[in-house]
Amino acid sequence: MQPATAIAVPRAKPKLVRRFFSLKRLQDNWQLYVLILPAFLSLLIFSYVPMYGVLIAFKDYMPSLGIWSSPWVGMKYFNQFFNSYYFWDLMRNTVGIQIYGLVVGFPLPIILALALNELKGGTWKKFSQTITYAPNFISVVVMGGMLVAFLDPSTGIINHALGLFGMKPIAFMSDPRWFKTVYVLSGVWQGTGWGSVIYLAALAGVDPTLHEAAIVDGATRLQRVWHINLPSIVPTMVILLIMNVGSLFSMGYEKVLLLQNPLNMSSSNVIATFVYQQGLINGAYSYAAAVGLFNSLINAILLIIVNNIARKVSQTSLW
């Protein structure tokens, strides 16, 4: 009877060997690591290191004592914000403006990209792209000044145009009912052209043979746009929708402050401007940090929820 042949069982590599291979991989690809190093350091320094300051949301922060030595107060400032009379007003204004902007502003870059993609290369296409991209490069301060000047009831060009049709001047900047519309439509005008760039890049990757086959089958241009171009950019649309919903509460305060005045405060006072006022003007650092942390947590929760829904529905997600 022959002796049983021993079966060689591969052993796990010792830690030192794995470390050697890691170092070897680092040496072989050091150029790539150097290339990514500035982005990594930027993310670490400006995004992760400042998270230490979140502690002041749970402390009664006093600059003379520093962050660590200031006394703990737990959830005091969170409860103060939740129980305040202006909590629901801030939430309603912030969510209202952002949802308004999402509903109006999200489809327009898609429509513009599909339209520009159908234009043949030439002067008209270049002119259209320049006209639609240019507003993105206008600074927020200049944009605020333009809106105030254009919407002035007595000298604004918009009210002069309305007067040509026999309409009375409208006080856009002092009427709270118009603030959301002015804010959203100006943002749509400024960002639609630039937002279409990523969709144009996605459309550039569409296989031309699909269009050739559709033309042979007698498909019209509109049918090709609907059945070929649009489905090809659906994954891009889903990713951008997830990111937009995930930043639903990440509303900047700069433009709102430029357009804000005592007459439209009931519609223009949002979480971002409240944090700015409490933290930088009133010096309530802990209170402002608590409100800002609450705002960030809501964004994170929305991002996770929408991402999971998108992954189940469309098989496309951020992770």
Question: How would you describe this structure to a colleague?
Answer:
The protein has 17 helices and no strands. With 319 residues, the chain is mainly alpha-helical. Helix 5 packs across helix 10 and helix 16 packs antiparallel against helix 17.
Uncertain residue ranges: 1-10
Strand content: under 5%
Report the helical percentage. Answer: 55-70%
**CA-atom Rg in angstroms:** 27 Å
Count every beta strand, where a strand is a DSSP E run of 2 or more residues: 0
Task: Average the pLDDT over all residues and give the rounded result.
Answer: 87
Shape: globular
N-to-C series of helices and strands = HHHHHHHHHHHHHHHHH
Distance between the termini: 57 Å
**Biggest pleated sheet:** none
Keywords:
mainly alpha; disordered N terminus; 319 residues
Topology (elements, then pairings):
Blueprint: H1 15-28, H2 30-48, H3 66-69, H4 76-82, H5 87-105, H6 107-118, H7 123-133, H8 140-150, H9 157-164, H10 176-203, H11 208-216, H12 221-232, H13 234-246, H14 254-259, H15 265-268, H16 271-281, H17 285-314
Helix pairs in contact: 4-17, 5-10, 6-10, 7-10, 13-17, 16-17
